[in-house]
């Protein structure tokens, strides 16, 4: 098998993903996993696709042909990867919205060689006061060599400085 990641962004409309999935299916490809979201009238996604080595070039060209003048598409070859020696954690952030929250937290993760696997964030109005509240949920991957207690302490310091709650908890399943 040959694997690649397809990223795409275009105007949000019914059938957008189906048109991409149809091309993958027509070339006997397998849609293995994906993340997609609509924001401000645009629809963006990324998908990991598997296909036989013999069909890989034809599938890639068909996807590029589909996207031409319609939406932005990128294709990156990837290898199968393992998660041996790594542990996943859930990172949750909640507090009053203010500049720098994502910057401070991701800066700490990067300095400590912690890999950010997935993150979603949102700003909503608090129920009683209408105050903008920032929330984020992320999955991070940590090698066994990393001192997770020290990382948790650093995140607690950031939480205190920014006036937000940050919770780091171990995930038991991949």
Task: Give the count of helical stretches.
Answer: 4
Low-confidence stretches: none
Class computed from helices, strands and strand pairing: alpha+beta
Strand content: 35-45%
What is the CATH architecture annotation of the largest domain?
2-Layer Sandwich
Question: Major sheet, described briefly?
Answer: 4 strands, antiparallel
CATH superfamily of the largest domain: ACT domain
The order of strands across the largest sheet is 2-3-1-4
Overall mean pLDDT: 93
Q: How far is the first residue's CA from the last residue's CA?
A: 22 Å
Q: What is the CA-atom radius of gyration, in angstroms? A: 20 Å
Report the strand count.
8
Characterize the overall form: flat
**SSE succession:** EHEEHEEHEEHE
Top-tier CATH class of the largest domain: Alpha Beta
């Amino acid at each position: 098998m040959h694997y690649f990641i397809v990223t795409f962004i275009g105007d949000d409309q019914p059938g957008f993903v189906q048109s991409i999935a149809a091309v993958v299916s027509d070339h006997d490809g397998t849609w293995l996993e994906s993340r997609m979201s609509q924001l401000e009238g645009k629809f963006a996604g990324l998908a990991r696709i598997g296909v036989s080595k013999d069909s890989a070039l034809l599938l890639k060209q068909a996807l590029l042909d589909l996207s031409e003048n319609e939406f932005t598409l990128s294709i990156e070859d990837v290898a199968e990867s393992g998660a041996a020696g790594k542990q996943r954690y859930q990172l949750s952030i909640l507090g009053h919205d203010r500049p720098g929250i994502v910057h401070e937290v991701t800066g700490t993760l990067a300095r400590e060689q912690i890999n950010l696997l997935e993150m979603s964030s949102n700003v909503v109005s608090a129920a009683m006061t209408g105050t903008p509240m920032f929330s984020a949920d992320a999955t991070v991957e940590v090698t066994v060599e990393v001192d997770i207690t020290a990382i948790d302490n650093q995140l607690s310091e950031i939480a205190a400085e920014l006036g937000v709650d940050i919770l780091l908890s171990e995930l038991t399943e991949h």
